[in-house]
Amino acid sequence: MALTLTDAAAARIKTFLENRGSGYGLRLGVKTSGCSGMAYVLEFADQTEAEDAVFEDKGVKIIIDPKSLVYLDGTELDYAKEGLNEGFKFNNPNVKDSCGCGESFTV
Amino acid sequence: MALLQISEPGQTAAPHQHKLAAGIDLGTTNSLVATVRSGLAEILPDENGKHLLPSVVRYRLGLPPQVGEEARAALTEDPHNTISSVKRFMGRGLADICKGCSCSEYDFAENTGSDSTVPRIRTVAGDISPVEASAEILKILKARAEKTLGGELTGVVITVPAYFDDAQRQATKDAAQLASLTVLRLLNEPTAAAVAYGLDRKSEGVHVVYDLGGGTFDISILRLNRGVFEVMSTAGNTALGGDDFDRTIAQWLAEQAGLGTEMTVHKMRVLRAEACRAKEALSAVESVSVSVSRDDGSVWQGELDREQLNILIDPLIQKTLSPCRRALRDAGIELDEIEDVVMVGGSTRSPRVREQVGEFFHCDVLVDIDPDKVVAVGAAIQADILVGNKPDNEMLLLDVIPLSLGIETMGGLVEKVIPRNATIPCAKAQEFTTFKDGQTALAVHVVQGERELVSDCRSLARFELRGIPPMVAGAARIRVTFQVDADGLLSVTAREQASGVESSVQVKPSYGLSDSEIEQMLRDSMAHAEEDVAARNLREMQVEAGRAIEAVESALVTDANLLSAGERARLDAALEDLRVQAEGSDHVHIKQAIETLNAASDDFAARRMDAGIHAAMAGHKLEEFS
Lengths: 107, 626
Hints:
The complex is a heterodimer of chains A (107) and B (626). By secondary structure, chain A is an alpha+beta fold. Chain A contains two helices and nine strands, in the order E-H-E-E-E-E-H-E-E-E-E. In chain A, a hairpin with a 2-residue loop joins strand 4 and strand 5 (60-64). Chain A starts with a strand and ends with a strand. Helices cover 36% and strands 25% of the residues of chain B. In chain B, strand 20 and strand 21 (413-418) form a beta hairpin. In chain B, helix 13 packs antiparallel against helix 14.
């Protein structure tokens, strides 16, 4: 069970955390909603719960609750630029189908 | 696959529910748009990586208007159809604009319709109002933000100079509406700058924001108290900025090159561009070469060094310091209480400006964030909070009331209840009383303005308090409470303390204020200060005279028998004289007549008192009174 970050993603997360001035790490997760079943959660984490799994990759702590981990195992988080827009991208091997915009997915 | 941003804990939006917000600095010279992504505020560049959008709009025949760099490039060749520094015209009347020197550059259309106060600039694409031109700039920024963020904007925060009055703020909101933008809030530029510097993360202190932009100068004194910003005072000059530096330098260039005073618009713009280039270069180097082509085709070559530049711009920098003094005085702040000065606006890049400002305030000047971008960054941070991307409102930014709020009192005078520059939300109460014996109703007339007479102020609302129990004049205690909430909504409540009868009204202070009205009112209050004092004295004296006459008359009705015929005649003469004087316009004469009447009635009053006591004590024993 593991999650990884690309260099670009790790660098951006570090910058954002530094800028924010506080925060333990980055919380990833999934929640049920959206047009195609599941949606990703990407938040700053100020605290961890007892059951959370914590990974560390390239100096960044990633926190995931055990239920989400099932859906996200093996995911690589990337930071990409598309035209003027830029942001994070989940490369999730578990995804079978996602909605047109990619904001939600099914496994 | 959509690109995601990091949210605050628990704030992840549902798919397609992202709340996109942006901060817009709608500047006189340049405009910017910024947003917060993954907790970091950034200025959004265009396709060419440029952050600043020149606030210039060029109208063309049969083609959509050009905005920004292209329009600015056309300034010299197509001056009449190219509108720059449009912010100076926002919410102002034609007369106000012509007081400045900038109106000569544009062909303002004659007032034709009912909407007489809004100036329109004649272009090939028709007559354009400043609001429409501003909307064009906002549309470009909106498109840039939506393209970058990949979705529609939920709302924006647009910054305005703290000195902007309600009319100018309303014009800015109108422009946003024309550009189909939802305005979350208009934020004062200095407050935005302070937010950008993270001054809100300190616990407390007094901060000064010195904002010298292209066309406007603002000085604001903010107090931070337990994470809450309070604008203590603001002052400024809506017609002073880097443009004036350019104009002064251009004049110097014209003199040096031996050009006449008569110049075409085109020539003036060329000179200004050269002046601007030289000024900007001198922030980094000690001396710069300048050239001006004369009408006969020859070219004048010269040098402009920092020393000469300083001589030229020092008077303008000095002009910024008098609003600084005023703001300090309004805030009641001593120089040693100030922690730092935030520098905003491109003109604060000038080393001379930094030096003079640092000297004036005796403290450090903050220049780390690009002075052109600092306001937009603060606006973006605020927009992010307002749109709900933060778990709780981490800061509450307080605004100020632009003009004093008060009520009408006897004689058509204004009693100010909430003074200008008071921070909102706020509530103030004052006690009033009845003027006549047995008065059972009180008309409350709510007005806004700085002048002493109601007729010179803006009427906001009227309501009546009825059911006051009959009492002698001055015995009723009526508490009038003014309350302004965070959105600037005013409610006024009048309550008679003894009986508890109550009446109230809600008003929006800016409601119905036409262009330039507020500004005119402010200006009037300064221009007519002496007149106003005289008018107030006169009215007060007239009210006093009325009271004296009434008192004597009612005494005569009951106790005329206490007077001898001679005394009665003297009293009647004094009464008559006072009646005549009260109609006149000299408060000194009225005062004298009141004194004469008082003197004439002194004995009468004493005798009435004796008679009253006598009547009260008759038939009682002395012991009953001890």
